[in-house]
Amino acid sequence: MKRELPAYAVLPPCPVTVVCTYDASEKPNGLAVSWTGIAVSEPPHVMIAVRPGRYSHAALCERGEFTMNIPSEDQMREADYFGITSGRKTNKFADLGLTPVPAEHVHAPMIAEFPLSLECRVVSRQEIGSHSVFIAEILAVHAEEGILDEKGRIDVTAMRPLSYDHAKYLYLGQGPVLGRAFSAGKERKKE
């Protein structure tokens, strides 16, 4: 039997992303964001939720452009650092020895060492409770060759993206492939 719990932010696991902008002085900055996801597939849009008190919030509002960078399991410590350190006080890229690369379609840096980067332009912002929710169109996708399959598609098993368990504050790795979507349930389907 299921037990009712108080309502809280739960949709496990959450993706781990680092959203990057340039600040007002053109310093590259990044913020770990797990309140994110695909908003719509055609045309492709993502959503991110950021607290107004975060240093990156002003740049997101003023510039309306960002990159979303997805770390692999091996980059857990770097991703966590982007979330526990403020860009007000330091240059996170320099601290971590990471390379900010100018995006091609938006004025924001990508993280060269992370395997996947999305260039995004904000199309909508709404204030909801404790966060500003930004809806942004994905203008370009940049993927390392090593995470692409023979058809040029992203291979998640090769990428090994990092996930986050908000309830226990844990980072998780990618598990084994369990089946194929739009196929695994066919044995249960009644004709």
Automatic annotation (TrEMBL):
Cited InterPro entries: Flavin_Rdtase-like_dom, Flavoredoxin, Split_barrel_FMN-bd
So which cofactors does this thing need? FMN
According to the entry, every stretch annotated as the Flavin reductase like domain falls at 11-157
Keywords, ordered alphabetically: Flavoprotein
The record's section on Gene3D superfamilies has: Electron Transport, Fmn-binding Protein, Chain A
PANTHER family per record:
FLAVOREDOXIN (PTHR43567:SF1), FLAVOREDOXIN-RELATED-RELATED (PTHR43567)
Family named by the database record: Belongs to the flavoredoxin family.
What is the name listed in the Swiss-Prot or TrEMBL entry for this protein? Answer: Flavin reductase family protein
> What is the protein's species of origin?
Methanocorpusculum vombati
